[in-house]
Amino acid sequence: MHRTLILFIAILLSAIYGCAHTVRETAGEIKPAENGAVYEETLENGLKVFVIKDRNAPLAVFEIWYNAGSINEQIGKTGLSHLLEHMMFKGTPRYGNKVFSKIINKAGGIDNAGTSHDYAYYFQKLSPDRLDLSIDMEADRMRNLIMDNGEFLSERDVVMEERRMRYEDDPQNLVFEEVVATAFKNNPYRWPVIGWMEDLKNLTRADLMDYYRKHYIPNNAFIVIAGNVDVPDVMAKIKREFGPIPKGPETGKLNIQEPVQKGEKRVYVKKEAELPYVISVYKTPNVLDEDSYALDVLAGVLSGGKSGRIYRGLVDEKRIALSAGAGYSNFNKYPFIFYLEGTPLPGKNIEEVENALYEEVQKIKDQPPAEREVQKAKNQIEAEFIIGQDSVYSQAMVLAQFEMLGSWKIKDKYIEGLRKVTPDDVQRVARKYLVVDQRTVGTLIPVKKDESVK
Amino acid sequence: MGKIKRINCYSLLVTAFLLFTLHCSLLTAAYALDVKRQVLKNGLKLLVVERHSVPIVRISIGINAGNLHEPVDKAGLASLVAGLLTEGTAKRTARQISEEIEFVGGSVGASGGGDYVTASLSVLKKDLDLGFELLSDIILNPSFPEQEIIKKKERIKGALRSQEDDPGYLSSREFKKAVFGDHPYGRLLTGTVETIDSITRDDIINFHAGHYVPENSIMAVVGDITNEEIEQLIQKHLGGWHPGNSSAASRHDVNMTRERKTITIDKDLTQANIVFGHTGISRDNPDYYAVSVMNYILGSGGFSSRLMQNIRDDKGLVYDISSYFGADKFGGSFQVELQTKNESANTAIAEVLKEINQIRSSPVTENEIADAKSFLTGSFPMRIETGARIAGFLVAVEYYGLGSDYIDKYPEYINSVTREDVLRVAKKYLDPEKYILVVVADQEKAQLKDEYK
């Protein structure tokens, strides 16, 4: 359950699929083609609301997304966005301290939240007739957090424990954090969402309160609801609870321009570990760019399961890697990364693994992948979208992901773009982005306990 | 395919997973599942739920071929057999299997379990015939090529080494070993380097032939399919699955005696990873439901639980803390897991003991028990949202013999639990004296007190 992040991404990539596939008609159930229409409305205070009606679902999900991820932080104050997300569960005068999740649980519901570089989001899964609870409590905590100082200090400790668990004691994650911090220089993607430990220690309640006041406003957020709900009814309740919240000053646009990298960068982490690890990252555009579709397919050709080239080459044939793969993070608001990574089998050399990863990329640069490989990667992505339709949670997540990038309607363009990718496109983007001089490589060097840098 | 790792930070626990450890067996009458159950001629139990809303099909097959059946000196055999099913059949090489299923964006495979192995298929409706054929092929005709066995063993041994870096893995491995001793539940499913090396291809072939039999298996199908369609597919692709003459699993009862013991592992860590616990209950224990309610209040109820409220919310000592009863066929364990900075280890352990003593000494409040019941009976659709989850749940209900009316009965089972029951089971199944304590930490900084050593 700690590793919800990986699950999260799988889910959000898995439900983008629209209504192209129809199903045989069955009494009492609604075909996807008739189902899943998106109702959209913007309140006067700027709060956008999206409702996906899914008549087949026995539950509903309520989500609220704030354009308030770690990219909005400053050097010296990293980790604010995520710590605020924790504080959002600490109570308002109306409901009292630390009861948010308890109230949801008591109603048979499940709730959680997450923060990324770009946003923070909150959700509850409930029986459709209990959605009032979400609407009431989310409207309340958009403006009325108590943020008691004692609670704040205690929760800051909790986040430091979270950081120890996720980073300090996880050698591979430490390398990832270092690589990202090294790859980017003029860019808030440099710092981890959870923040640097040194900053966490110095954050204050006032920092949090300022950030909350500035970013948690209706015109910097949107709501997504999915499930078997009555749209007019749900909209009336949302207007009643969220409508009176005044619009805030526009938060303004960030201007993030990363300079071109002019040579390979390397970083090493020395830490007690059994096996080394390598990750090589390249800066790449996000899904708003035409090249992103081919990059997505490239990741699939390289790493789409046991039939992908990296598993076949490094794990199955050469038998040098315990695990190896590639990935492309296309859903960031600003250009982020494409990466290759691997762990050697005991006794095998880390350089050998690193070079073998590059060889697989080189093969694609030399010769476009086969038509079937490209089709397979597309099929895998599309199948994931369809599978995502099985859950109202995924449906809402996907809509929200696209909306955060500009508009939920981008998803249709995404599918179209993906379908058009050719083997030559895949070769072209490999040549264009996976460039030696523009990569940043992180390596974990295992040392004995007493040789670790403290 | 655009998978991002490690980009997002999650602040809260996914309660769904916590509760899921109670063998997915909690649900509500409000959520009706129309399950068609039949026993086929070859003994295979078939459970079908039609869900035509999305064009996908999920199949889970529970096969009574877990590590309960492997000899101790061949530990890892059951898991190895399950993992090798997709590494070659009479008709297909390992590569062909992965290529065929991945080309259509599906997945097929099997993984080893304690009580049973689960083989599963996830595929789009339009590719069901292919997917079902692959699933049948890996179960009926695995060829266990020598070369694939060598490669698989190499990777398993590599993974065993790599996992030494995961403090959560270390603490849970040591805990299981200490609680269950020689019982198969106390072993790693993967076995150890030594036992893996001792497994031969003949062992593998014989284990498969003896245990992958239909009369020991449960197939759950959920998705865009009818009962008739699945029957036809079974006839077409699984017709050759004949009953064997395998003996039913002999009873392997866990020795439930408890003893006080501490295990420490010293590593370069900033946090102490702590597991506290002892033996628990088996799934057929009539107290299972009272234990579910009690444990929700103690530590499985996420932010509604006492452990979380006290040790995280009030004291800020942990990011995550939970307790659970793993209730398996022949026994089970109770455990509390947490991570806290090395220096807080003693305090956190003391607080866990305090909560255990508290729930054993005075009745829970009316509110607590009402909230627990309300969640447990009301949250089923939230916790089992997808077809894949439902399929896994159906296999568990059948395997543990919970009855075809289980879904309807469950709220009754939960609602009949009283505060006195909660107190009684807390006293009976929680032990603040004879417990196992595992602490994986920088021991010099953790400075474990004598009373915990």
In the CATH hierarchy, the architecture of the largest domain in chain B is 2-Layer Sandwich
| Beta-strand content of chain B | 15-25%
Report the mean per-residue pLDDT of chain A as an integer.
Answer: 91
Tell me the major beta sheet of chain A: 6 strands, mixed
Cα distance, first to last residue of chain B?
48 Å
Assign the CATH class of the largest domain in chain A.
Alpha Beta
- How many helices of chain B? The count is 18
Report the sheet with the most strands of chain B, covering strand number, pairing sense and barrel closure.
6 strands, mixed
What's the CATH H-level homologous superfamily of the largest domain in chain B? Metalloenzyme, LuxS/M16 peptidase-like
- Give the helix level of chain B as a range of percent: 40-55%
Strand order of the largest sheet of chain A: 1-2-8-3-7-6
Which word captures the global form of chain B? globular
Please tell me what the overall shape of chain A is.
globular
The most extensive contact between chains is: A-B, 113 and 90 residues
Q: How many domains of chain B?
A: 2
Order of helices and strands of chain B: EHEEEHHEEHHHHHEHEEHHEEHHHHHHEH
